[in-house]
Specification:
This protein is an alpha/beta fold. The protein folds into three domains: about 10-85, Winged helix-like DNA-binding domain superfamily/Winged helix DNA-binding domain (Arc Repressor Mutant, subunit A, Orthogonal Bundle), CATH 1.10.10; about 100-110 and about 340-435, Aspartate Aminotransferase, domain 1 (Alpha-Beta Complex), CATH 3.90.1150.10; about 135-315, 3-Layer(aba) Sandwich (Aspartate Aminotransferase, domain 2). It has helices spanning about 10-25, 40-45, 50-60, 80-90, 115-125, 130, 140-155, 170-175, 195-205, 235-245, 270-275, 305-310, 320-330, 335-360, 385-395, 425-435, and strands at about 65-70, 70-75, 100, 165, 185-190, 205-210, 215-220, 250-255, 280-285, 295-300, 365-370, 375-380, 400, 400-405, 410-415. The strands form four sheets. Strands 4-10-9-8-7-5-6 form a seven-stranded mixed beta sheet, sandwiched between helices. A four-stranded antiparallel beta sheet has the order 11-12-15-14, covered by helices on one side. Strand 8 (about 250-255), helix 11 (about 270-275) and strand 9 form a beta-alpha-beta unit. The radius of gyration is 27 Å and the shape is globular. The mean pLDDT is about 85.
């Protein structure tokens, strides 16, 4: 913690007390360490002797330090013992082992051609001279050019390679974005809250607001509005764009899951519908390839581009240069389209199999359906348990489920993502779900 002796919120001696208590609790002042003398502490902090003595007496009274005659004050072992007790307690509390994670977006082991990707990685590594230099801070130009062509053709985006910024995940891109939108201070998460994104905004001093009308920044995931995979209609997208433009709001569109539609074609992105203005577009290749391949990109509107370019040279590129070059050629050779088709086949087949297993066991006691997402199965079971209670009970069996945001008395409504759990485990899981229901 910092010291602010001009703050009216607390007295000076309590600030000194909290300051040293924090250092002791976090192990920065270890057991047996001698505290600064009262005289020296007065000189360092510019405070009176009475203030420091009062703070030290409070620390001693609470057992954090002890006075030794003719020697001074020393840190006791109380804080370390308390931390050890807490650690022991945590170890005693058994963690529930997750056997079947139906909330996960991790990849199925059959979803990716590792041999093919290795060839592209090896090809990139053979570019010896390029491996001797740092990557471009904005991302390798040829990859930005290839991504530009891809998003224009596949996602209806409006952009040039100069507007695209590459990074290792959405968080790293938000770290670049926040300093150039600091004139706006209030962020509203229109769809499912993005915890990792909220942390970044809060670290930069933005306020997370609960009301749409109070915000000057909207963070949206229109292609994956909820954990159930709901998709925003084109009409609603146009309505939000019109309303945001009239109030000078900036939209951050996180379009990480746009390709995974089951019955419908991907809807045009907000950025394209807005003509590329007042919308920052974020997307990633981690979902389409592998979670471990951390390659994301951001499209900045032209009004923000000069602000980014002023600071661009001060930021290092966070994404691997090797992976950027490999992905560039991978995209140019048309493998991404083949990969998307492969994923749709795989996950739609897994989804159909899980639906079949559920229907065989529950019959008329359950309503089973699939939404627009390729990998999500919706289940409505007759049960006296609420959605949250059902999921909590399932966790005791090692099954992690997605509770529906729709509550209905007499029913438990859940969703299951088929991404991670192998299809040969579905029958076993469904039998366990029947036990939970009963």
């Amino acid at each position: 913690m910092g010291l602010d002796f001009h703050s009216p919120k607390t007295t000076r001696y309590l600030q000194v007390y909290d300051y040293y208590k924090d250092l002791i609790i976090h192990g920065k002042l270890e057991e047996g360490t001698k505290m600064p003398s009262i005289r020296r502490c007065c000189e360092q902090l510019g405070l009176s002797k009475t203030t420091i003595e009062t703070a030290y007496l409070c620390l001693a009274a609470d057992g954090y330090i002890i006075a030794r005659p003719q020697s001074g004050y020393y840190v006791t072992g109380r804080a370390a013992k308390n931390q050890a007790k807490k650690a022991a307690k945590r170890q005693e509390e058994p963690k529930q082992k997750i056997l079947y994670d139906f909330t996960s977006n991790n990849a199925d082991e059959d979803s990716f051609d590792f041999d093919l990707w290795r060839r592209y990685i090896k090809s990139a590594l053979r570019q010896d001279k390029r491996m001797l230099t740092y990557g471009e801070s904005q991302g390798e130009y040829e990859l930005r050019e290839t991504i530009c062509n891809y998003v224009i053709n596949k996602r209806n985006a409006v952009c040039t390679p100069e507007q695209i910024v590459i990074g290792a995940g959405s968080q790293s891109l938000l770290n670049l974005l926040c300093p150039i939108i600091k004139d706006k201070q209030k962020v509203y998460f229109h769809d499912t809250p993005f915890a990792q994104g909220i942390v970044i905004f809060e670290d930069y001093g933005f306020e997370i607001v609960e009301n749409f009308e109070d915000a000057d920044i909207l963070y949206m995931t229109p292609s994956n509005m909820t954990s159930l995979g709901d998709v925003m209609s084109v009409e609603k997208r146009l309505e939000i764009l019109k309303e945001s433009a009239s109030h000078n709001r900036l939209i951050i569109e996180d379009d990480y899951n746009n390709e995974f539609r089951y019955f419908t074609k991907p809807r045009p992105c907000l950025q394209g519908l807005a003509g590329g203005e007042h919308v920052v577009y974020l997307s990633t290749f981690s979902k389409l390839l592998l979670p471990s391949i951390r390659l994301s990109f951001m499209i900045l509107p032209y009004d923000l581009l000069p602000l980014y370019q002023k600071k661009r040279a001060l930021y290092n590129q966070t994404a691997s240069k090797v992976e950027q070059l490999a992905l560039c050629q991978f995209l140019r050779d048309g493998h991404l389209d083949a990969q998307i088709r492969k994923l749709k086949r795989l996950y739609s087949n897994k989804t159909k199999q899980l639906c079949y297993e559920l229907e065989q066991v529950f019959g008329k006691n359950a309503s089973i359906s699939t939404g627009e997402s390729v990998s999500i199965v919706h289940v409505k079971l007759k049960s006296n348990l609420s959605n949250q209670e059902f999921c909590k009970k399932a966790l005791q069996y090692g099954i992690k489920l997605i509770p529906s945001y729709i509550e209905e008395k007499g029913y438990a409504q859940i969703a299951l993502s088929t991404c991670e759990v192998p299809s040969n485990k579905f029958s076993e899981v469904v039998s366990l779900l029947k036990q939970i229901k009963e």
